[in-house]
Amino acid sequence: MAQRTTIHLRSECKPLEYRSALTPTAAKSLIEHGYVVNVERSPARIFKDEEFEAIGANLVPENSWPKAPESHLILGLKELPEEESPLKHTHIQFAHCYKQQSGWQQVLRRFPRGGGTLYDLEFLTDHKGRRVAAFGSSAGYCGAALALLAWSHQLLHPSEPLPSISAYPNESALISHLKFSVSAALSLAPRPPRILVIGALGRCGNGAIQLCKNAGIPDSDIRKWDMAETASGGPFDEIVKSDVFVNCVYLGNDPIPPFVTKQQLAQAGEKKRLSVVCDVSCDPTSPNNPVRIYDTWTSFSKPTVDVRFEGAGDEAGPLSVIAIDHLPSLLPREASEDFCRDLLPSLLLLDKRHEAPVWLGAEKLFREKVKTLDEEVGKNGEVNGAA
């Protein structure tokens, strides 16, 4: 009798990360199809441990995955802690190391050193090259929500940064709070905020636009740009003339001309209306980042960072950037359910991963990326010279 494939859902270690790569509903389906599902106990996950236990999953101690048998597949969402230890398992997660992000070599090198494999969730694609699952719509939705909260807060509490943000129990609670905040801010503003969404035709952009509509922003105040509008290359004055800019452009491997620069902001003077930028793409250390006015990530505990630029007087007004790399955690239950619904068909093929195209492609890409490391990879999968 063939050995059953075991999927080990690890507890997320990133602060304020409440999402889950696996929902109880998806876990139940996997178990019904013959998989063993081990779920680490988690104090933060939006789904309670008991929800997984009730559908037949095995609860295991938090952070027990390093000691799991090598044949177990380790499933998670966000990146692992920054360590040097080799990784011996097959990991399924967002690793953020395939586009030469800061520290990418250190992250990627751990896998060949331990004989492990990375199936990066960002690069799981079907036979047409389309991503099988993404948080894009949720990211755009939540990013636009935070942008409007930040815009409202600037008017209601000038000179005070946006305070820490907690996850909402559901979408209705978020929209209710957002409408209240925007309504209060509009009592002090001469008009609704003018919002520019770039990447409007993608899933992320659609999510951002839908949030703005749900929050009561008139459609006439939501400008929707995509490739046709940005084909000429930036910087774009339309960004500076908007109150809120939401960047939903997916960053690939090719450089993109800057959409907005500090020099442009400084030259705009009193014509500058821009007060909030939400960079949903959120890759400040990438050489391809088109929003070149900030250089660090923000977090739910400190959602914004102020942008300083030469020659900016008081008349220029504030400018805050939101750059949170796990925005969908603002609505963790809905985001997890939507993502896992799309991911489940591929998860059900994990027992055939050595012949299923979605997983063969992911492993092929991993091998290609390993070859780009600055040390020679030996035939046995280890990096020569690595301790």
Strand residues, percent: 5-15%
Question: Which stretches of 5+ consecutive residues score pLDDT under 50?
Answer: 376-387
- As laid out across the biggest beta sheet, the strand order is 3-2-1-4-5-6
Report the principal-axis shape: globular
Number of helices: 11
- Gap between N and C termini, in Å? 39 Å
Q: Considering DSSP H and I runs of 4 or more, what fraction of the residues is helical? A: 25-40%
Order of helices and strands: EHEHEEEHEHHEHEHHEEHEEEEHH
Rg, Å, rounded:
22 Å
Q: How would you classify the helix and strand content by structural class?
A: alpha/beta
What is the arithmetic mean of pLDDT? 92
- Total DSSP E strands: 14
How can the largest sheet be summarized?
6 strands, parallel
Question: Notable features of this structure?
Answer:
disordered C terminus; globular; 6-stranded parallel sheet; alpha/beta; 6-stranded mixed sheet; 11 helices; 13% strand; 387 residues
Structural commentary:
- The protein has 387 residues and is α/β, with parallel strands linked by helices.
- It is built from eleven helices and 14 strands.
- The chain has a six-stranded parallel sheet with strand order 3-2-1-4-5-6, with helices on both faces. A six-stranded mixed sheet has the order 8-7-9-11-14-13. It has a two-stranded parallel ribbon with strand order 10-12.
- The model is unreliable at 376-387 (pLDDT under 50).
